[in-house]
Amino acid sequence: MYRALLICNSVYPFEPVKLPKLLGPVRDGLAMWSALTDTEKGGLFSPEDVEVLFECDKDEILKTANRFFQICDPDDVLLFYYSGHGKTSRSNLHLCARDTTIELLPSSSVSGNELKSYMETSPSQNVIVILDCCHSGAFKGDPPKVSPGPLAGKGRFVVTASSASQRAADASEAGHPSPFTRALVEGLRHAEPRSVEEGTLVVEDVYNYALQTLPKDLPRPLRRVNGVGDAVIAKRPERPAQETVSQAVPHQPDPSPGPFLDWLRRRGFAGPGLAEPSLGNRLSWRVFLLAASLVGLFAYLSCQTWYSEMAYGYYDWSPETEFFFLGCGALAALCVLACLFEGLGPKNSAWAQRLRRATGFAFGALWFESVTRIGLNYEEQALLQSVMMFFCIAAVLDRLHDSLFFAGALVSFAGVIVPAENLGYGDFDINVLFQALASTIMLALWYFGATDRHFAAMAAVSLALGGADFLTHGSVPGVSLFGSSLALLSAVLGDGARPADGSRSLMRRGAASLTVSS
């Protein structure tokens, strides 16, 4: 059996300066998947046996790689592919993950030694490793010594995009694979096998094709062998008319998603997709900045209403309530500063991201305090509680994909059960039923890892239902409208966890991701 694990990381939110966004990895994974599973060109990999993962944390990569190398048979051919940033420390290669920080590189990245330990204990006798990253030649220590003989078939082969001291080339523009991966994909489709009679394509054939077709000014790919025989990676059928790599890659996002994202793209925020992974990581701090500003505004308005209500005798003065409003204002100001430094600061902003997330947990504590002990019951307080609930959920689920959308969907669902005097729907009727159904569908779309288009469409439907309730009943379901608006904004901006045109459901690993440490 032929099995492959393709890891593609393009964005690194904890190191936006030292590990800048890459254009190639999203397309690299799709192109490799298509070439490996293309039976018309002799692909030997079944689609269900090629797992493609985008924007993974270190723990996700290690757990998936361990399972990939351990749960197999001796005759299986295993292909491990990585596209992303690569760094070296003490002559050892480190594959960067979504949560990698340069200051803590050994503990926040996937080291070559960890991968090698999985391979050495794997039952499989046939392992192929392809690394499209900077310094990839450092895998296994020193740069590999190329022998004139054929690549091994029973054992381990490593093909890298560069030497240990060189930087690999990224794609020239979004929506295209990197030069190295493009050469490999074209080799898998068009390289001539050494034995034309047998029609079997081995790794060396693909490597030689890439070596010959890559531009001379780019780093030279390297190979390393530890084994005997030939590794068959494809079996050539009769060659039909040649096709280009761009024709064979799976579905691409609509190149004209709309004027708003066209405006963003012209300013360097987005590629051709509706919301490529880089978009959310560059803009998500703006969503939190907006939410923090709303906390400060609603806290001020709610405090003023409280003072007014006390003047009429509706509420008594309480030090706990006053402390609650002061805490909301102070946390909001702190979060605004963290977001501004994260988005506009010239230095590493990992500490600002951690501070922003910590304020989310603090907002959760204040939200619980307001619900259980403060007991204020007016519209401004309901909006304040809603935005604090959004903040807390987004902080708790920070490492899962589309956490901002999920938080907005939960706030929208909470509006169904909130009383009408607190900007909820109030009495049960058909509007409440439809809103509950819409919010449930939003949560289901999140669970199954749907596309940004589906997220945005369902959030818009939820907003429309809130508007319909206002037209029919005259009341404003503010909590659901607020949650749906945040969900729609988050769907448009994305959070950088996966490509906009979808992927194999990342949330099928969601429960395991909850255990990933921050």
UniProtKB/TrEMBL annotation:
The keyword Membrane applies. GO terms for molecular function: cysteine-type endopeptidase activity. Keywords: Membrane, Transmembrane, Transmembrane helix. Residues 237-256 are annotated as: Disordered. The chain crosses the membrane at residues 287-307, 323-345, 404-420, 432-448. InterPro entries: Caspase-like_dom_sf, Caspase-related_regulators, Pept_C14_caspase. Residues 3-192 form the Peptidase C14 caspase domain. Signal peptide: none annotated. This is Peptidase C14 caspase domain-containing protein. It holds the Pfam family Peptidase_C14. One of its GO terms (biological process) is proteolysis.
